[in-house]
Design brief:
115 residues, TATA-Binding Protein, Uncharacterised_YugN-like, YugN-like family protein, YugN-like_sf, alpha+beta, 6-stranded antiparallel sheet
Length: 115
């Protein structure tokens, strides 16, 4: 599921600040290569024992990811249910309480980035 109204799409900052902001809001840099980085936040649903992941996809628009002054732009924000062993299902509807947690975390992340 693509999260359309996060307010993060198109935001830009350097890699060091993106990493710091992510850590402060509970996200961590998971996948990365020279020109892309994905930040994730894991939400565990105690009711149905499922795991959901909020992902923020970024792309380097100046520099490469091994340098802290590389400028990243947020390209997309999406969410899916974890599947065994390492996949995400983007088609399953997200429960309301899980979506609320995701929206709160995305708002936190955005507030820190814009500070």
């Amino acid at each position: 599921m693509i999260i359309e109204n996060s307010g993060l799409d198109g935001l830009k900052c350097d890699l060091a600040y993106m990493d710091e902001s992510a850590e402060k809001s509970g996200f961590f840099r998971w996948q990365w290569e020279y020109y892309r980085a994905t930040y994730e936040y894991k939400i565990e649903d105690a009711h149905n024992k499922e795991e959901y992941f909020v992902r923020i996809n970024t792309r380097a628009i100046e520099g490469k990811l091994e340098k802290p002054d590389t400028i990243l732009a947020v390209e997309a924000v999406y969410m899916g249910r974890g599947t065994f062993p390492h996949g995400l299902d983007y088609e399953t509807p997200i429960p309301g309480p899980i979506q609320a947690i995701a929206n709160k975390k995305l708002s936190q992340f955005k507030a820190i980035l814009e500070a």
